[in-house]
Amino acid sequence: MAEQEKLKPKQKPHYVDNKKFLAAMTEYRALRIKAEEEGKPRPTVTNYIGECYLKIANHLSYRPNFINYTYRDDMISDGIENCLQYMDNFDPEKSKNPFAYFTQIIYYAFIRRIQKEKKQQEVKQKMIANYGIEQMMDSMEGDDTQYQSQMLDFLRRNSREETEADKKKEVK
User: 150 and 101 in one domain?
Assistant: First the structure.
């Protein structure tokens, strides 16, 4: 039996220790409640809690459904901001798992950012289609015609792909 225990590989520690995180959140909550009762300003968030938010957001951003977005940094920032915004709602008496609570907050912040960016992309594509690519290029300043022609080709390709994708959606 002792031999089998020796053969087991060491488990790597999790990047956020849930017990320490819970203790830090409980301590912060007690300080915040005490400050509110005394009419003092809210205490600042500890570095450890901030590091936990950052680690959770960074690790979540490497999941396959989030990794390929060019605005991953914005997603991480939104997640951390939402954690700070809703940290007062975490109640250690109701849940002993702050890791799961804040992971959910960050996950939904990521989803909201992706939806916002997709809407912005649609607006850009519609502007290009409605305004006309050539008119946009004519209004650009500068003498670099090679750059303008490359940009024009790129915009034409993208607008064609968008139009074809829209037509396929309408057919289905």
Answer: no
Per-residue pLDDT tens over the stretch 75-121: 999 999 999 999 999 999 999 999 999 999 999 999 999 999 999 98
Total number of domains constituting the chain? 2
In a domain, 66, yes or no: yes
For residues 43 and 54, what is the distance between their CA atoms, to the nearest angstrom?
A: 19
Residues in Cβ contact with 66 at an 8 Å cutoff, skipping those fewer than 6 apart: 60, 72, 75, 110
State pTM to two decimals. 0.71
Domain assignment of residue 37, given as a range: 13-120
